[in-house]
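Human: If only I could read backbone structure tokens as easily as an amino acid sequence. Underneath my words sits a plain record pairing an amino acid chain with its backbone structure tokens. Take your time, and here it is.
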Amino acid sequence: MKQLVFIINIVMAVFLSWGCAEYIDLDLETSDQKLVVDGMITSERHIQYVRLSRSVAFMDDTVSPPVSGARVLLSDGYNVETLREANEMAGFYVAKNGFAATPGNSYELTVSEVDIDGDGVEESYQAISYMPHVNKPDSIDLLFDASWEMWKVLLWFNDPPDSEDYYLFRVLLNGTLISERISEFTVVSDRFFENGRADGVWVQSINANEEAEPLQEGDVVTLQMCGITEEYFDFVKSVQRESRGQYPLFSGPPANVPGNISNGALGFFTAFSVSYANLVVSAGLLEEKNNSD
């Protein structure tokens, strides 16, 4: 049970940046409530989850309320898994024993037995996501950039030549995810790699300003490389554009960020494969940083 609480707390942090203000139209001070789905399953064997909440009006500064009591099913076309609502976190639906999703398969999410608009009629929502394959990175390295006050995470990797691929990169420090918000994700297409090869390409960053905890000798930096769909790539890019303040003060996105949930719901359900590359911080690496300061 402690493991479940820990994982759910991480989940909540990861998806806080998917808040409803990023999705709600601005032309009304109030609007009809919609279901918001934050769903992510991976090729790792752990507790898979889906978060359900209700949208709020743009000018409403309250936290989007969770949706409880829903029936949530996950299917690969052969097996159906029922996700149960966690007692410790309302609106989070988890697979009881956890499972590893399989690259190359498609997964369908179904949410039913909910009445989001309050008209007394229950609604049903669906989404389908394909899980692409991902190759393991060859290696990673760190390069300190004094002008940006950051460590650049550099990647060495061969991209498969016969397919169009999309990738998501996140960073863990000593096993803890530090690029947890969607605004901190790096998403790229394989066109990002020249001739299908990454030779020291900058794909993620670790903050090294005065407020950040400095890297220590023996720290383990891990790059998480995920194979994602083009649809999820577009979704993340859209959310990032809107969260970076490209609109006048006190205005926001002119339209909802498009997701892949049916029946007018907001958000996204995605399935992605995962691979990793690790680097142990050495004394020599820290000395190079000190010489560049």
